[in-house]
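Why does residue order matter? Because the sequence determines the fold. Keep that principle in mind as you read this record.
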Amino acid sequence: MARTGEHIILTDVLDNGLTVAYRRAAGEVECCGVSIMAGSRDECDGEHGLAHFVEHTIFKGTRRRRSHHVINRMETVGGELNAYTTKEETFVYTLAPAHNTARAIELIADLVVNCSFPAAELEKEREVVADEISSYLDTPDAAVYDDFEDKIFAGSSLGHNILGTRKTVARLGREDCRRWVDRFYHAGRMVFFYTGPASDSRVFSLARKYLGIIPSAGEACARCAPVKVDRFELARSIRSHQAHTVMGVRLDGLDRCYNDSLALLNNILGGPGMNSRLNVSLRENRGLVYTVDSSISRYCDTALWTVYFGCDDEHSSLCRSLVADELSRMAGEQLSPRALNMSKRQLLGQLILSRAGVENTALALGRSTLRGDVYRSPAQLEQDINSITSGRLVEVARLLVDAGMSSLTFH
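Structure:
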């Protein structure tokens, strides 16, 4: 077992190779589940949308339970059963009142090992996913991200949409779902996580009892790093009353020591605060956009920094220039000590709020353990953020400038 920081994280490895991560949290709520190293980038040709489809249909029955039994297992005690898929991971988890630990762990084990994908249930859920795809395509401020990533990760499985298309999802059947689970849902690619008031000895004992049945290994599945693509500036007509633009930079091989600095830079430029430089420049000072924000997407072998804004089509070129100007400013001048300290305090406050609640804490624990990252306590986070210098921010901003921003506009 390993202990880290003042907020103790305990980890253990079961005989089948499954890592169990535990963090105690006082209160009357517990959250536990599995994080699985399997997402849309692991799909082969003809499988687009399969990771997400399995996430939806894994609840539709097991060899021991029918769909309504799965649903009611946690809900009859006031709990919730949930899941989500990213490009690299799948999470299946429960949130429930305390003292339902055994019920939750047994159910999670049953789902990931004994899921049966009944044909009738798959057909019903296929329609649900198809509606989700249609709804997403009707939201251009979301769809533009997918097209942008498809371009910047051209030739890589990182590029395609997590949901797939109506056509690809229509072809997916029980055998595809079962093959996906057999390929990826095994102990070597999985972490079980728990946050709540139950003792570590109880959680580890229950994990050994119920999760030891998870297969220890599946197929060897290597990921290929995306190839570098040339900078692009593209536009696509969707006959929208507003232009939706994503600008972004790929950061391949970014050293982990830059992660916190990039997070702080991102927060200053286009974070959630109304005082972000891009919001002040494009919205507050000029009234050109309704919304503008920037974000970071991190993958195991690359990262992506993006800016999104929506504006009248006639202003899109000016807005792109203003975004580039703000980034150039960050690359050309150091923040004053006062401005740097204020920016650090704002980011730290946002990080604390993002961890509020047992669910967020548990999911962060599952994600960090799966990725091999250290789960940092608030004190360690504060120390790491406060160590960032103005010079380091300039250095990271120059990396973004030198990489050259690509852009895609829907209008």
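The chain has 15 helices and eleven strands.
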